[in-house]
Amino acid sequence: MEILPKTLGTRPRLAVEVRAEGVVAARAEDATALLTSVARVDLANGAVAPGLKAGNLVDKSSVTAAVKRTLDAVSGRGSSDRAERGAGRLRDVTLVVPDSAVRVLFLDFDQLPTKVAEALPLVRFRLKKLLPFDADDAMVSYQVMSSEKGTIKLLAVAIPKAVLEEYEAMVLAAGYLPGAVLPSTLAALAGLDETPSPVLVVNAGLGSVTTAIVQAGVLLLHRSVDMGASAGAPVELVESAMPLVDRESSVQEWARQEPLGPEGWDRFDAPSEMPPSMLNSALVREIEAQAAAREVAQAVSVAAAYFEDSLHTAPDQLLMAGTLDVGTLMTATEENGLEGLRVREMMDAGMMEAGAVTASVPRGWLAGVRGALKN
Asked: What pLDDT is stored for residue 6 in this prediction?
């Protein structure tokens, strides 16, 4: 994976997100991330099984084909692009991976070297007892969130090496180069405009839900729940919360969302008609969505309670990303006692050019790729 320089406008103008439900890709011409082209391909149920072990891409061929199809559609590839590929030049893309494939944690240090090469081993050492996989065999990145009163607070992100390489290989097989990699929710949050008012966000799909709280460019809560794929399967909770910090004390690096970490990932040497199988998957997902919405509403309720306890005010709106239908979630939140919480999508029509997206690509799907394209 190429490590991009930390200057505005250098991130790839193409982004693709892989989720259990499908693949979505988008293009933006500049750092404002006004989407000029969008494409989506649904995946058969079980084609992607996000997690912390290799084997996320259960049906590699179909997922790779979906990635290629969506990226080709938004990049407008033609004969000139084929010539470039023949010369060994691939187009860079930002790859957005499922939250279930990564771990996002807050860490506190009394002091930390300013050089990444010196600080990273200390971050890894702290992660050893916190990660459910070997920190020494993982891609690790971090960003300083604040430094005040002798305490350095940072956001650390880790992904098993084998898992990351699996997703990267898929993009390469599709004919593109993964120039940056971001987790789904952090990518979506990068698309938010910075405001002094705290914001409650949910990123929901059929198999997982992540809630987050952001205030003035500072991430205060990142809470992920991996819901078992089958009845009776254990539910895994990964919760990270950071004590409130002043806006002026935060370097706000995460909001700029270059490839995670001061120098990017720490690298080792290293269509209109669906086939019957897809229709069956759609019916199954519609039934599953009703049950998933209740789980998502519960996760939102917990995050709303943390919001009120920490910020001494109740959230009045919920920004939504992901593949869960807004109406379904609104109903579920009301049934869960959150009647006063207004639910709206993170994406709105003003973030896309006319004709860039159609009804076949719901706006909730686009939050991650749009944030990935915004510098």
From this structure: 36
Higher pLDDT, 259 or 324: 324
Q: What residues does each domain of the chain span?
A: 14-373
Strands (E), the chain: 14-18, 22-28, 35-42, 91-97, 103-109, 138-148, 151-160, 176-183, 199-204, 208-215, 218-226, 236-241, 317-322, 342-345
Q: What is the CATH number of domain 14-373?
A: 3.30.420.380
Amino acid, single-letter form, for residue 234? P
Q: Would you say the C-alpha torsion 5, 254, 9, 90 has a positive or negative sign?
A: positive
Q: Phi/psi zone of residue 369: left (φ > 0), alpha (ψ -120 to 50 degrees), beta?
A: alpha
277, pLDDT greater than 70? no
Residue 210: CB partners within 8 Å, gap ≥ 6? 99, 184, 185, 202, 203, 204, 222, 223, 224, 225
The verdict on pTM exceeding 0.85 is no
Average pLDDT, the chain: 82
pLDDT digits (tens, 9 = 90+) for 356-374: 766 678 888 999 999 999 9
Cα 78 from Cα 124, distance rounded (Å):
44
Q: Which two tokens stand for residue 358?
A: 């159609």
